[in-house]
Amino acid sequence: MSEVNSAKTRRSYRSPTRDEGARRTRQAIVATAAELFAERGYAATSLADIATAAGVARPTVFASFGSKPALLRHVLDQALAGDDVPVAVADRPWFRPVWDATTPSAVLDAYADVCVIIAQRAAHLFEVVRRAADGAPEVAELWNVLQSNRRAGAKMVVEHMRTLGDLAPGLDTPTAIDTLWLFNDPAHYAALVVQRGWPEDAFRRWLADRMRDALLT
């Protein structure tokens, strides 16, 4: 066999077992990083710390993610989505009730559920990024992306509501989007559920009511 043919054979071979092992390793690194970032903060957590806690070599972490900011972004992406499958939040089954709702009020009820689901997984990580943003430009950029993405989500929901009915009298669309962007902040969950001990269902009802009060009445 020629060297060229041999090289082609090696490049075309993929091992499902090896791929699944690599995926499990990445998942272990992401889970460990999420825990350490939440416990110690971004600045106080090094890639070496994450590697040690995950039981892998530091070069493995670097090879998998490239840098600490990139790893933090992966941690957030997975917390927001719920897994590492490349499916947008708006296309997830747990977001489907927002699209299936038939009235603006029902849209906000369903969206309150979505906000709780996301906050359960990501509220503590949003706080990690917020605290780190002042001292790390690369994290400040990520924080700005998170804010923009939250507003994009609010815009998507408000525009869907407009196809089903009217907003509150005198409320224009940009203001409605800004208002919903304010309410979809996971910081509300962190303050009322995590810090003050509200039951999640009570928080969900409060959030849905406040959004309805602001956007529909």
Summarize the amount of helix as a percent range: over 70%
Mean pLDDT: 91
Rg calculated over all Cα atoms: 21 Å
C-alpha geometry: elongated
Q: Uncertain segments of ≥5 residues (pLDDT<50)?
A: 1-10
In total, the number of strands is 0
Structural class: mainly alpha
The portion of residues forming beta strands comes to under 5%
Number of separate helices: 11
The biggest sheet amounts to: none
In angstroms, what separates the terminal alpha carbons?
76 Å
Run of helices and strands: HHHHHHHHHHH
How would you sum up this structure, described in words?
The chain is an all-alpha fold and 217 residues long. It is built from 11 helices and no strands. It has helices at 3-12, 16-40, 47-54, 58-65, 68-81, 96-100, 104-133, 137-162, 173-183, 186-195, 200-216. Helix 2 (16-40) packs across helix 5 and helix 7 packs antiparallel against helix 8 (137-162). The longest helix is centred in the middle third of the chain and has 30 residues, at 104-133. The radius of gyration is 21 Å and the shape is elongated. Residues 1-10 have low confidence and may be disordered.
